[in-house]
Design a protein that fits this description.
Elements (H helix, E strand, L loop, with lengths): L4 E4 L5 H9 L3 E4 L8 H7 L4 E6 L7 H5 L6 E4 L9 H7 L2 E3 L6 H16 L2 H10 L18 E4 L3 H11 L5 E4 L10 E2 L3 H6 L3 E4 L13 H7 L4 E4 L8 H10 L4 E4 L18 E3 L8 H19 L10
Parallel strand pairs: 1-2, 1-3, 3-4, 4-5, 6-7, 6-9, 7-8, 9-10, 10-11, 11-12
Helix pairs in contact: 1-11, 5-7
């Protein structure tokens, strides 16, 4: 990949940046430009840029693609592709890849970790012990996770991995997806509201599309109810965030564990004081092992494309 121009839309993992540089790529660091100047940056360097490395927050929208007439491939450092204009890429014959499978276990692990953290109030209990409040009395009783009914929105790779982990806690599994899956031990519901009405914990694990945007709305939240817990390790826009905040503040929802938010990195401040909410900064796949494997997939796809070999994880 010697001298190939690569537009990197976000500050990358140091390992990925080092490996791209070691392979002779010329890196164009879009994140270093002010947001208002980024299209102009692309146009100014359009004669050299043949590849984009994006992620779940900064991919390749139509305007960016139009500004890069020599663009050949978009290699996304993520599974989700909602930040890539796939129709535009198909129209232009631009290849698109992502990084599936390698992050499944970490995301599923965090989903279970968030669930237990919310139900057992682990962050709050940690503060209680650190503050010395324990000397004044025992911590409040919490709720067990084992045996609770777990509902999953989206039974793809990550949804299935979450289901298998929850089964180990003797949790009955139910799910909603576009169609019923061949998993007879899991109960299928044909609407998100029906699913939410029949579970204690609702986990969002589907892809973000126009159909799944705000799939968790007020009706779903109210169906989950004041003892229910919402876990979101999908994308922020899956959830109608103002409705979620209102339900938590008003006590219409029992708790939430959130890895993603509608307007990242902005988190609704109303959630900060709630002991029944656990907030983490979009870190579900953020382990050394997984991020290195994701970087290797990005590198492998770029190398395959420029060596005229089959792509490792082709989407388009």
């Amino acid at each position: 990949m010697d001298k190939i121009g690569v537009l990197v839309t976000h500050k990358p993992l140091p390992y990925l940046e080092q490996e791209l540089t070691r392979r002779g790529c010329r890196l164009f660091r879009l994140w270093e430009s002010p947001e208002s100047c980024r299209l102009e940056f692309c146009r100014e360097n359009s004669s050299e840029i043949r590849a984009i490395v994006g992620n779940s927050n900064f991919g390749a929208d139509a305007a960016t693609i139009d500004a890069l007439p020599k663009l050949e491939i978009v290699a996304s450092f993520s599974v989700g592709l909602d930040k890539v204009d796939l129709p535009k890429c198909k129209e232009r014959g631009i290849r698109v890849t992502n990084t599936p499978d390698v992050l499944t276990d970490d995301v599923a692990d965090l989903a279970i970790g968030l669930t237990i953290s919310v139900m057992r109030r682990i962050p709050s209990a940690d503060k209680y012990a650190r503050s010395g409040a324990w000397k004044k009395g025992e911590y409040t009783l919490t709720t067990r996770f084992s045996g609770k009914r777990v509902g999953i929105l989206g039974l793809g790779r990550i949804g299935l991995a979450i289901a298998k982990r929850a089964e180990a806690f003797d949790c009955p599994i139910s799910y909603y997806s576009r169609s019923e899956k061949p998993h007879p031990n899991y109960t299928y519901y044909s609407t998100p509201v029906d699913l939410a009405s029949n579970c204690d914990i609702l986990v969002v694990a589907c892809a973000l599309t126009e159909e799944t945007r705000h799939i968790v709305n007020r009706a779903v939240i109210d169906a989950l109810g004041p003892k229910g817990v919402l876990i979101n390790i999908g994308r922020g826009p899956h959830v109608d965030e103002p409705e979620l905040v209102a339900a938590l503040v008003e006590g219409r929802l029992g708790g939430a564990g959130l890895d993603v938010f509608e307007n990242e990195p902005h988190v609704p401040e109303e959630l900060f004081a709630l002991d029944n909410v656990v907030l983490v900064p979009h870190v579900a796949s953020a382990t050394i092992e997984t991020r290195t494997a994701m970087a290797d997939l990005v590198l492998g796809n770029l190398e395959a494309h420029f060596l005229k070999k089959p792509l490792l994880t082709a989407v388009v």
